[in-house]
Amino acid sequence: MTIKQSPKLIVIVFVAMFVVIAASSKWLSGLRFDLTENGLYTLSDGTKNILSELEQPVTIDFYFSEKATTQLPALRTYAQRVEELLQEYSNIAGDNLTINVIDPEPFSEAEDQAALAGLQGVPAGARGDEVYFGLVAKNAAGAEEIIPFIQPDKETFLEYDLTRLVSALSTTALPKVGIYSGIEIKGGFDYVTRQSRPDWAVLEYIQESFDIEWIDAKAKRIENVDVLLLIAPQNLSDELLFAIDQFVLSGGRTMVFLDPYSEAMSGKSGMPSVQRSDLQALLPSWGLTLREGVFLKDYDNSMVVGVGEARNPVRHLGLLGLTPDSMTADDIVLFGLESVNLSTVGILDSLADASVTVTPLIQSSEQAQSHSVDDLLEMQDPQVLMKDFAPTGERYTLAARVTGKATTAFPDGVEIEVAIDSEEGNEASTADLAKDAEAVPEYRTEILVPELTESDQIQVMVLSDSDMLSDRLWVQVQNFFGQQIVTPWADNASLLVNALETMSGHPDLVEIRSQGRFNRPFTRVDMLRRDAEERFYAEQEVLESELSTLEENLMRLEQMKGEGDGAMFSPEQEVELVKFQEEKLKVRKRLREVQHQLDKDIESLGTQLKLINILLIPGIICLIVLFVAGRRRFS
């Protein structure tokens, strides 16, 4: 090649580079390779299925303050990610999904529209301008859904939130969930604190995707609901038990949360008491029983809590943080869930002669044992559960799916009493009886005869803990510019909504939520911590016993002080007092050493990892470089 041809070649190269850059910016915009293990940044098959089967057109107005965020690069990057994701949605849905990107500049008509739609304006711009980052979605019928402000810290749930929103607008009606709860999950007034209680956060999760109908305690029939949800049922009326029985036999899909010790109900009467939630009249016909009077202690799945004013870390064998190892991997309801937290959970036993099929969904580890619920009433320190702990090596069932052939629990029907109007002989309504406060209602006996006595295929899911739905076990509520932001830290609500979506015929959303969070636990650290606790717990118990004895002796000496002539210890007492005080200091020092020893192995492992990262890996890279350089030199 001559020197004269070189400038032409350079020009050709530059032109080719310009063409490639221009073409890639146009046709390859948003292209990325997802190398994460679970494909966190790739649209799930569930999203693709929902978008390709939209029943009616949906329009999304995506509002982002482009000009007002010039000094917020992180927010702009995330907004670009959202816009690219919406464009992917549009590409899959075709004409059924329209995306409009709008910059609500200050004092513009677009800003007024954003504010009127209910979007949250946050004063975070360069000049204090309000920044909008949300969207408004509408369908052809005029129904509307909004996301007031897209939270960057909820990026892992972005795909689920967007797909749920589109799915809700594309269908004509939401699935209906009938709920009966023995716990006040709808909030109310706390007469002890004199303050109102908010709704449980799990209700918000259900309301996002379902239409809720509350089941009356005296209902004789359960109709026009897609899924029946029973939360901590207790002392149900015969009418309602009969209605549940017939609903299940008719093919009605049912989810039940039972509990051997409901913490939410235990203090309702003012004094702590064991409040059991059970369906003893129905469970045997479903091939199950809830073990009486016991909860489960599980060492491998137990959590560490802070106790006392110093918040000293203590392992609580009744407070469980379950990982995928405890869950059935091939069940769609549990697919992708990372952590489910339970408290004083019960044990489900399957009946050997049952005609149904009982499939365990969640099980304990082999390091587990049952324990009496009565001991929970006076328990101050969870560490007492370690005493006499002897794991049985058995894996206990904590949640199960029941399918197959079942028969009614009421073959002879149910006898109930119905209030009647004594003058007219008609059945009296509650409203009629309320008109006359002095009226004394009369009753007549009625027998409810089952229309269905058996079913070839029932669909029931039973879990042995209802406290898992309470806020403290799965969610953190924060105030964000006057708005309550609910941030899950466990998958308790996801398990519930997954089950409701599957049972109501919306399984595609399950896969999307399950994709949301990915966490790799420190299994080696957890194992070291368990080994250390087992090794030093016995020694700690002996030392604490010695310390308690010494404190009793010191107290006895203090009481003896001043007896007789009144003011001073005798010389013998002084010597004994000094001896006891010195021994007490020694015991407390040994206790501190035991506590420090618990973390010694973990710190040693951390040191080893640091040495590997700092010295070993760079050293290996250097050796590889030197080896390659040597081969080139002598080749």
Give a description of the structure.
The protein is α+β, with helices and mostly antiparallel strands. It has four domains: 32-168, Glutaredoxin, CATH 3.40.30; 176-291 and 345-364 and 394-413 and 451-520, no CATH class; 416-448, no CATH class; 524-598. The chain has 14 helices and 25 strands. It has helices at 5-27, 45-52, 73-93, 109-117, 158-170, 201-209, 238-249, 263-266, 430-435, 492-503, 508-514, 523-560, 571-598, 600-634, and strands at residues 58-64, 97-102, 121-123, 130-139, 144-147, 176-181, 188-190, 195-197, 211-214, 227-231, 253-257, 288-290, 294-298, 302-307, 312-322, 340-343, 348-350, 356-363, 368-372, 397-407, 414-420, 442-448, 454-463, 475-480, 483-488. The strands form eight sheets. It has a seven-stranded mixed sheet, with helices on both faces. Strands 1, 2, 3, 4 and 5 form a five-stranded mixed sheet that branches. Strand 1 (58-64), helix 3 (73-93) and strand 2 (97-102) form a beta-alpha-beta unit. The longest helix has 38 residues, at 523-560. The two termini are 29 Å apart.
